[in-house]
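Example record

One chain of 244 residues, shown exactly as stored in the release files.
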Amino acid sequence: MQQKNSSFALALKILKTLIRWGVWTAIGLYLLIIILLHLSSVQHFVGAQVAGALEKKLGTKVKIERVDLGFLNHFIVDGLVINDQSGKQMAKASRIAAKIDILSLINGGKVRISSAQIFGLNALLYQTSPTDKPNFQFLIDSLKSRDTTRHTPLNLNLQSLIIRHSNVRYDLLSAPNTPNKLNLNHLNVTEISGHIDIDTLTDSRICTQIHSLSFNEKQGLNVQNLRFKLKANKQLATITQLFV
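Predicted structure tokens for this chain:
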């Protein structure tokens, strides 16, 4: 009996040792990966790989200077450039960062972003005529499922979106210019800064709060610290707590 107890104790001790080694090995590998991902050469390599994957997905030229993968669910993309499908530069951002709730995505298919930041965005958007597709249509199409037999509903929650030092220009090329007059067919919006929460964004409704939004339009429109709440569905839209 004493020999059996000794054998059991020895087996238990070996098992505990193996578990301890396994845990420390996993921790060591994780720390090694984190250290490697903070090396400049690795970040540039990851950026090139991500850019290549996006090029295949979008069917156009994409450039990324580097990707910094932080702890667990946080990532930073620096030097993003996307061309439209005619080969012209469509969007450029100095930095995009986000923190994603992985568990919500895995368990319920809900994209929950606890925080996101966009810095130094410059977007050049245009449409040749009202009947032609805009140059950014391929981006919208890329988000659609290729499986036409089933529909995956959109379900997005973005707790905090920060935008700083961004510019967006849109032109309907067939429409005439109207100097010194606001023209929705030719918009040149600069110095966009904002803090936005998107509580709900689905196929059928949106609920968002603009904590602050500031921008300048080339023809003289100047908006500072615009704030409001928006709730909308396919039938109705309401704006409350509007402050200009």
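Notes: The chain has a mean pLDDT of 83.
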